[in-house]
Design a protein that fits this description.
Length: about 170
């Protein structure tokens, strides 16, 4: 399967809200309301759903999804992931990356030392972090490393086609 046809999880259906099929929305987008910029949604079973309406309700977002008319309907979709296809994501500039693109890339130092493969990417508040699973043959006995994803300081280059991230990093750390 190519990355272009992959599903990207952008949120999750929460508890029913009221009796007319409205549901709470848990969003994973940068801005909470950004989840509503993407349509159609693919819910758990892969079926496409269109959004009818949405609104803020206190500190949460609630939405009415077409075809979900009752509280029982809303209960049926509760806790399902909200996904979109990768083609629905905006195009990024040359030096911007989606976390999903970095996962699985090989990480090597500027001196050619193979640190391993990106297992995960997350944010600490200060900056993004790549979690690198070390190769079984790691000479330093490390099983994984956490490297700050800071361009030009730590991250020297990202080769999307070659799937290699070059870093300025001490392999013993």
């Amino acid at each position: 399967m190519s990355q272009a046809s992959d599903k990207v999880v952008i949120g999750k259906i929460g508890a029913p809200h009221g009796v007319k099929g409205w549901v709470k929305i848990n969003t994973y987008t940068d801005t909470p309301e950004g989840i509503f910029d993407y349509q159609p949604w693919l819910l758990g079973d892969g079926k496409e759903y269109q959004l009818d309406q949405w609104r803020p309700h206190g500190k949460v977002l609630v939405a009415k999804i077409e075809g979900i008319e009752t509280r029982d309907d809303a209960e049926r979709i509760k806790n399902l992931d909200i996904s979109i296809t990768a083609e629905q994501l905006p195009e990024l500039d040359e030096n911007e990356f989606y976390w999903r693109e970095l996962t699985g890339m090989q990480v090597v130092t500027t001196q050619g030392y193979d640190l391993g493969v990106v297992k995960d990417v997350f944010n600490t508040g200060a900056n993004d972090i790549i979690q690198v699973r070390a190769n079984a043959k790691d000479a330093f006995g490390l099983k994984e490393r956490l490297l700050p994803f800071v361009m030009d300081e730590v991250i020297q280059s990202v080769d999307k086609e070659g799937k290699v991230i070059t870093v300025d990093w001490d392999p013993g750390f």
